[in-house]
Amino acid sequence: MANKPSIPKGMRDFSQQEMAERNYIFDTIKSVFRKFGYAQIETPAMENLSTLLGKYGDEGDKLLFRVMNSGEKAAQAPEKGLRYDLTVPFARYVVQHQNEISFPFKRFQIQPVWRADRPQKGRYREFYQCDVDAIGSKSQLNELELVQIVDKVFSLLDIRVLLKINNRKVLTGFAEICGFPDKVVDITVAIDKLDKIGLDAVKEEMLGKGLTPSAIAVIEQILELSGTASEKISAMRGLMNGGSASGIVSATGLAGLDELEELFGLIEAAGVGVPVEIDLSLARGLNYYTGAIFEVKALDWEIGSICGGGRYDNLTGIFGLPDMSGVGISFGADRIYDVLKGLDKFPAGLRSSTTVLFANMGGAEVRYVLPLAGTLREKGISVEIYPDSSKLKKQFDYADRKAIPFISINGADEAAAGTVQFKNLASGEQRSFSSDDIDGILAFLT
Question: Does the pLDDT value for residue 350 go beyond 70?
Answer without folding.
Answer: yes
